[in-house]
Structures are given as structure tokens and as C-alpha cells.
Design goal:
With about 200 residues, the protein is mainly alpha-helical. It has nine helices and two strands, in the order ααααββααααα.
Length: about 200
């Protein structure tokens, strides 16, 4: 290899490495800022409750808490699922009703976070060390509800994955996860939630 070409390749490698290091440092800085925002009194109760569920880490909880804000504005979990675009399309004519794929209307960021969280329910129910740490200090009713969600959603995923593709099963699990999350977020004070907006 010619010395000039070797020099240019070395320069390209060094600049790409420097850019990568900058991006990693920037990501770490943004992660620290998100952690600090999660401690704000307006967001902390929502974030801590949401983290009691398997598959919902700090970042996922922050997305759901800041995008949905006031969970009480939805009277039923189905309304929240509709807001997130997790309900099936319907093609009805007379007595015939056909359900299709999800509508994908509404908040795509929350929908993506919920579908990613739903993938964790393909594994058998268990409480990991990290999940136990996140559940510390939370009401026993919330922890019990999160455990019921693990059992129900794992069973649901296994049942659907036998008949359908895993991608379809996981969206159905995400839709049911919305119901579990909606239930535990109903008694978070509205004043705390709206202060975040």
C-alpha cells in the first residue's frame, strides 16, 4: 500500500474514532440529564410506577410519562390504546366484520416503546435484581399488578406465538400492557402529572 494512501486511511480512521468518542460522550451526558429530569417532583411518581413493569426502564418510563402526561384523561384502557394506535383496523359491511393490522395512528414514539417493552414478556415471569431495585418503595398493589401483568402477558404471548408470527403476538401483548399500565397510573395525582406539561 502506498504511503500516501496509508496516511489518508489513518487520518480517516482517527477522525471517525474521534467522532464516535464525541457521540458516546454526548449520549452519556444526555443520559445523565434524563436521569436528573426523572427526579423532578412532577415526573418522579409516574416514572417510578412505570418502572415497576418488566421491559420498562428509565428511558421508556420517561417517554411514556412525558408523552402521555395525564393518564386519567382516558376513561378506559381501550381509549389509551386507540390514542397510541394499537387497535385493529376494522372493515365492516353488513353482518361481516374484518379486523386488520393496527391503525398506527396516534403517538408513534410511545407505541414503539411499548412494543419494545412487550418483547420482554416472551420470557418466563421472573423478578430480576434490577426489577426488584426499581420496585423498591412502591406500593404493594402496584408490584402485585406488575407481577400479574408478567404472568398474563407471558401466557398471552406464548398462546399467540403458537398460531401467529411473533411480531403480531408482541403487538397484541403491547396492547394488553397498555391496560395494565393504565390501571396503575389512575391514582397518580393529576396535579403532579400536569405540572410536567
Amino acid at each position: 500500500m502506498a504511503p500516501r494512501l496509508r496516511c489518508r486511511i489513518g487520518w480517516c480512521f482517527a477522525s471517525i474514532t474521534a467522532l464516535l468518542m464525541y457521540k458516546l460522550q454526548r449520549r452519556d451526558e444526555l443520559d445523565r440529564q434524563i436521569e436528573q429530569l426523572a427526579l423532578l417532583p412532577a415526573l418522579a411518581p409516574m416514572v417510578r410506577r412505570l418502572q415497576c413493569f418488566r421491559g420498562i426502564s428509565l428511558h421508556s418510563a420517561m417517554v411514556l410519562a412525558t408523552e402521555i402526561v395525564d393518564w386519567r384523561r382516558f376513561e378506559r384502557p381501550a381509549q389509551l390504546a386507540c390514542y397510541l394506535g394499537l387497535i385493529s383496523r376494522e372493515d365492516s359491511s353488513g353482518d361481516r366484520t374484518r379486523l386488520g393490522s393496527i391503525t398506527k395512528t396516534g403517538n408513534s414514539h410511545c407505541r414503539h416503546v411499548l412494543v419494545q417493552a412487550a418483547w420482554s414478556y416472551r420470557h418466563r415471569p421472573q423478578t430480576s435484581v434490577d426489577l426488584k431495585r426499581r420496585q423498591q418503595g412502591q406500593p404493594p398493589a402496584v408490584i402485585t399488578h406488575a407481577w400479574k401483568a408478567q404472568q398474563r402477558l407471558h401466557q398471552r404471548f406464548q398462546h399467540l406465538a403458537e398460531r401467529k408470527r411473533p411480531q403480531i403476538a408482541v403487538v397484541a401483548v403491547a396492547r394488553e400492557l397498555v391496560g395494565f399500565l393504565w390501571a396503575v397510573m389512575q391514582d397518580v395525582a393529576v396535579g403532579e402529572a400536569t405540572a410536567a406539561a
